[in-house]
Amino acid sequence: MESKRLIFTLHRVAGASDEERLAVLTEVSQRLDKLIASKLLPISSELTGQDPWEYRRAYSPGLQELIEAMTFLEFLSTGRLLSLSGGVRDRLPSGLLVSQFDYLLGVCDLSGELMRLALNAAAKADFDTPERVLAFLQKLLGCCETVPDRGPDWFPKDFAGKLETMRQSVEKVETVCYQQCLRCIEESNIQLPVVTH
User: Fold this and answer.
1) CATH number, domain with residue 27
2) DSSP string, 77-128
3) Cα Rg for the chain, rounded, in angstroms?
């Protein structure tokens, strides 16, 4: 639940001044540290000496939401994707199993937040953010589509649905960018060349 609140807070950066943007990113980073210390550290210590795969399903959905919030924060801060080994695992308690599946599903959820960010930015006449988000989402989708599906026993059943949702998010941002280009052409009265065969 707190992860979703962090994500909603991060959406305040759309149209914010640089000072306000920095304040939001700092606030969310601090709240994220508190969330990890208050919720995940106790889980990690309770799992010490246990088989980490045995209890993973109990906390996996919450972990995916947290990964979504962490990767959204990283995108807004640096424009890049937070990696699993050098980013997510480094910030979370070491006794907590963070599988590639949890990371992948959390990253798939990130696409919806990036789509909202692009739509909100476009509504505020910010033309750069949707284009930046689109380039990032297209690369991300391309990477996710190359993940091999090795059958239902090996792969999370949620992945196919989340991948389709990611495709829809990319299409929505593509549409927004296309509409922005058309609006710019209409407003500048540029005459497009007529192609004849």
Assistant:
1) 1.20.58.2140
2) HHSSPPPIIIIIHHHS-TTS---HHHHHHHHHHHHHHHHHHHHHHHHTT--H
3) 19
CA distance 36 to 69: 12
Is 174 within any annotated ligand binding site? no
The angle subtended at Cα 114 by Cα 173 and Cα 188, nearest 5°, is 40
Name the burial class of residue 45, with classes exposed (0-12), middle (13-18) and buried (19+) by CB atoms within 10 angstroms of its CB: exposed
Annotation-wise, does 68 bind a ligand? yes
- Residues with Cβ < 8 Å from 16, sequence gap 6 or more? 24
Give domain status of residue 95, yes or no.
yes
The reported pTM is: 0.88
Looking at residue 157, its amino acid is K
DSSP string, 126-141: --HHHHHHHHHHHHHH
CB atoms within 10 A of CB 168: 12
Structural domain boundaries enclosing 82: 1-46+60-185
Residue 147 belongs to a domain: yes
Give domain status of residue 53, yes or no: no
Per the structure, how many domains does the chain have? 1
Given a contact cutoff of 8 angstroms between Cβ atoms, the answer to whether 104 and 144 are in contact is yes
| pLDDT average per 10 residues of sequence, the chain (197 residues) | 92 88 95 92 84 81 94 96 91 86 93 95 89 96 83 70 94 93 77 62
